[in-house]
Structures are given as structure tokens and as C-alpha cells.
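Chapter review: from sequence to fold.
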Amino acid sequence: MQRRTKIVATLGPATDRAGVLEGIIKAGVNVVRLNFSHGTHEDHIKRVNAVREISDRLNIKVGILSDLQGPKIRIEKFVDGSVILEEGATFILDSQYDDNAGTAERVGIAYKELVNDVKPQDILLLDDGKIVVEVTAVKGSEVHTKVNIGGVLSNRKGINLQGGGLSAPALTDKDKEDLICAANFQTDYVAVSFPRNGSDMDEARALLEKAGSKAHLVAKIERIEAVTNIDEIILASDAIMVARGDLAVEIGDSKLMGAQKRMIMRARELNRAVITATQMMESMIENSSPTRAEVMDVSNAVLDGTDAVMLSAESAAGKYPVETVKAMAEICIGAESEQFSVLTPNAFIKDRKFNYTDEAIAMSAMVLANHYDVQALVCLTESGTTALLMSRVTSEIPIYGLTRHSETAGRMTLYRGVKPIEFSVHHANEEDVVGEVMHVLKEHKAVKSGDRIIITRGSLNFVQGGTNNLRIAVVE
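The C-alpha cell string follows.
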């Protein structure tokens, strides 16, 4: 069975080890993530070059996702690296304090605007909610708090305001420099951290276009404001990421599952891709097999219809990155074989009005594929849009996106059920084009003689948004 759900893996020290990067690509990674919170531009460029060399050699298209750090809403460092905060103790967050002189009584903060964003009785969650403090007073550069839930607090841990409301902009000066770096090495996707609304995504898109990049944008849903403005953020983006770490801290763990399911469903309804992320295989940072809870978590996201599941520290810094990818791929296939949550074409298009010809063609192809004996769906595409539209509907039929553009193939690496193939049409005659398509599919061992396939294309070659033709053909 061909896996449809895509795997995104974060690169880091673990994947820099000899043979590991090639190992995870062979094991099933579709998109690699560059985390701009860590490493230098030179580190990221070196990893991109390595990915592309391996991808070309193995003839496996691998997408590049550049993840911007976003605002540093963090504490600074402690003298001894960490402290123990006792319940009931006073703890001061000081925007003017020495960045390296933190103690159990006081620590500096990277986010200088915290003093303007909080007031007495606000609840601050440190280190993903492991430490909970209540604001008692704001005095100049100091936020005075009382520790409600204590424990060990170490350097550079995050700060969240319960209920949201921090005013930090989504794009920092560092993000803007990193975005230009990503544009220069022709990244396929750029992920924006902590967007609050569609305007944050519009700003990022304008900066990308100014840098000459055609990269698509991923909105990381991490703030309660983003949940509130989810439709405008989805529509201003090309994909979203359900970033469950900071999001869970802001909205509460009990509301996370419902939020995940609604966001995945809404992204698909609005014809956008969606990644589910954070702690999906966390135990495999140290262990060679996942917990049953992790198996269920990944499976649940697959059944919800996510386009991709993501690995963070598991692949970037874990002991078993290759084994983790293999395990995740097996879990995805197992979940996809079940039919508990299937969005059929009939259900998807019920009461929908199509505004564009390519959407009507894509949905017609999916209805045919699910009600006729068809072995493959093939779309000749300039932008990848037809393949994306097809992938919004659940089907066991593989979708092959044939494109002459490397950047379009890179984007399609994220779409559920779509295999991108770089391919140029050399003929104008329709019969010759169909013959070329069959030849390249055979080369990729996608079809065999006698298979029935559906081909969608535009009547005019090399025209974006021009898909207006659907044909059923039998492979010779």
C-alpha cells in the first residue's frame, strides 16, 4: 500500500551524522524542516545542499520547509543553568536584568514588552506550562509574580500568557533576515511563527515576493488569537501547522483535540494543506520504539485527514531518527487502511458551488476515481493547484502531479496522496501527450499495461490555472 500522509522531519545534529540524512529520506521523509531557531545560515545552506544532492541521486523529490523563529517570548539565563522555584515563592521577571545572572529570585527576559502586556492576576505559564506563576504587580522593568506551581526552571524557556494577548509581532528583524536567506536557497515553504491574523501572513508574503521567492507560506497556529481568526489566516496562507506545544499552553490541554480536528477540517474545506506537529513521537528521542499513546496520536491525525505529520527533536537531536521515520510511516499506512473517517467526494462537494474550472475538473476526477475502476490519477500542472484540489478528498487512488517546474514539484511534496514528478511535455498533439505521460509513469513504476488512468490537463500547454480537460485512458 502506498502511504498517502506525508512526513516532515526536522534537520539537526542527529541528521548531520554520516548516513542519517540519506537514511531518513529512504525511510520515507517527504519534506525536511530547517529550524531557524537554531544554527547559522551556513548550517542551513549546507543541509539544503546535502538534501538536494541525495534527492537527485535517489530520484526522490524532497521539499524544503524553512521555519522562522518568531518573537523570542522567553526568559534569559541562570547563573547555574537552572533553579528550583518553590510554590508560594516570589519570582521577578525583569526586562532590564543581566541576561546571564538569573537566580531563584529574579531572571531577565528576552521579551521586553512583557511589562506592558500583563497586569495583576494574569497567569504566566513558563516552560510549556510546567511552571505557573501569577502576576502580583508590575513595577517599571519588573513583573512581580507568585509561584503557583513550582519545579525546575532552566535557561531560555518560553513564556505564555494564559488566554493569550501578548503583543509581540509575528516577524522580527531576525526573521526578515532569515526569510531572505531561505529565499536565496529557493525554499519551497516558509513557516511563520505566532501569527495573530491574516495581516501577519500578508506581511510575510510581501517580504517573500520582494526577495524574489515563489515559496508558499505556512501559518503556525500557536496563539489563541490565531484560533479566533483561523479562517482569515488559512485564506492568507498556503498551509497551516497545528503547532500543539504553545497552542496547548494558551488554550488549555483539554481543548487541544477539538481545536486540532476543527483546524484540519477547515483547512481542507478551504483547499489548504495542513501539518500536525509537536511531540508526535517524543519518546523516540531516547527510545527505539514509540509508546502506544504516540501510535494512537499519529493515527488520529491521519484519520482526521492531515496532509502531513511532523517530527521535531525526534529527528533533529534524537538517538533513532531513521527508526523514528520508519515507525511513523508504518503507523500512517496502518491508519490509512482503516475507514473510520473518510471524506468522500460526494460528502466534500455537497452543497458546494465551484468558482473555477480547475476545481470542477478536479472534483469530477475524484468522483470518477472513487466510483470507477481506476488505478491512478494524473494531473499535468503548472502551479500544483489541481493536485492540491484533488488531495482535499480522501481516496485510495494515488495522485501523480506532473510538472515542468521544480518549485511546483517541491510544493506538492506536502500534499496528501500526491507524488510529484518533474516532467515536460514535448508535443502539442493530445495523443502524443498521453503517450508521453504513460511512458513517464511506467518509468516510475506507477502503472503497468492495462491499467486505467484519469488524466487532467489544460487544452493549452504552459498556462497556469488552465486545467479544463479530463480524459480516461488505458495504459498501453
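Two observations follow directly from the output. The chain has 18 helices and 21 strands. Residues 41-58 form the longest helix (18 residues).
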